[in-house]
Automatic annotation (TrEMBL):
<dbReference type="Pfam" id="PF03456">
    <property type="entry name" value="uDENN"/>
</dbReference>
<dbReference type="InterPro" id="IPR001194">
    <property type="entry name" value="cDENN_dom"/>
</dbReference>
<protein>
    <recommendedName>
        <fullName>UDENN domain-containing protein</fullName>
    </recommendedName>
</protein>
<feature type="domain" description="UDENN">
    <location>
        <begin position="34"/>
        <end position="326"/>
    </location>
</feature>
<dbReference type="InterPro" id="IPR037516">
    <property type="entry name" value="Tripartite_DENN"/>
</dbReference>
<dbReference type="InterPro" id="IPR005113">
    <property type="entry name" value="uDENN_dom"/>
</dbReference>
<dbReference type="Pfam" id="PF02141">
    <property type="entry name" value="DENN"/>
</dbReference>
<keyword id="KW-0344">Guanine-nucleotide releasing factor</keyword>
<dbReference type="InterPro" id="IPR047278">
    <property type="entry name" value="DEN5A/B"/>
</dbReference>
<feature type="compositionally biased region" description="Low complexity">
    <location>
        <begin position="141"/>
        <end position="170"/>
    </location>
</feature>
<feature type="region of interest" description="Disordered">
    <location>
        <begin position="138"/>
        <end position="170"/>
    </location>
</feature>
Amino acid sequence: MNGTAAATGGSASCRFAHYFVVCGVDTETGLEPDDGAGESFEQSPIRRSFKSKVLVHYPENTDRIPFNKDAVNMLCLPRGLSFRTQADSLDPQFHSFTIASDDGTRSYGFVHTFYEEVTSPQIITAMQTLYQMHHVEHHSSSSASSPSSSTCSSASTPSTSSMDSLASSLEESDAESLTSGVSGCLGCVGSFDAARDTLYVSKALCLFTPLPFLQASRQFLAQLHQAVTSQTAPPLPLESYVYNILYEVPLPPPGRSLRFHGVQGPIVCQRPGPGELPLGDYPLGEAFSLLGVNNMVKLLTCALLETQVLLYSKGKPMIQFSVYFF
């Protein structure tokens, strides 16, 4: 079955995908600290999290599944915006999530996160200013704690201020110490100098589907990202591929397979029939590698005994989650 041969304009419940979403940095609002990340301001700004925004989503809305912008933004980028430089790893990442509505209807989200070069002068200047303020504060606190220092000047960052006021608060003496400090910190972890570093920020491509077609969605998003970064233009505009998967690719009938065109090649998925096991497109190897054999056995035992299970990440509070089996 070829998805591109399906009739256009079918109901959303019969389509392969409900929504296509892009989340990232909003150059108009600038950088806003992510207070929910629970991070310390002692960290370098290049290592902090900032608030992300839903930049675009198609379609605007569907009848059965209303679009929740705040929830989608949090699930697509649970750690907020992450900044990197050319010295850091820029490998793309992939994760998935499930949204359950009040009536029990589920939507499955699949997210391809990559790092895009920052071209906005406002964002680059804001990050440079934040790093300068952080360096001055760190330098001043170090001087104050040193027994050999007779005088010190402390620089504090106002809780609510614009980037212009932050930049203007740098005194000449602080700027001189900053220049010498930054020049001596070339290549340091968490350092940033706009004159020598290339700034990158995380960006998420997300696809919502009514069934958990993980591998097919992962391939589509990865091909889309490769087309964006490739020097060779795809045969059709990228919008055509997004339109195709949203409006022209249908759900495969139970017990049938579906083949549709991605940006760089065909993509195949299969839907189990009524007498078959439910669709399980998630690789078990990753679960075993993350949790270990003993924990996986305990998890499956609890699931079979219909016990409530809580999975808690050791990372940031925003990525804790719970799974309930009934």
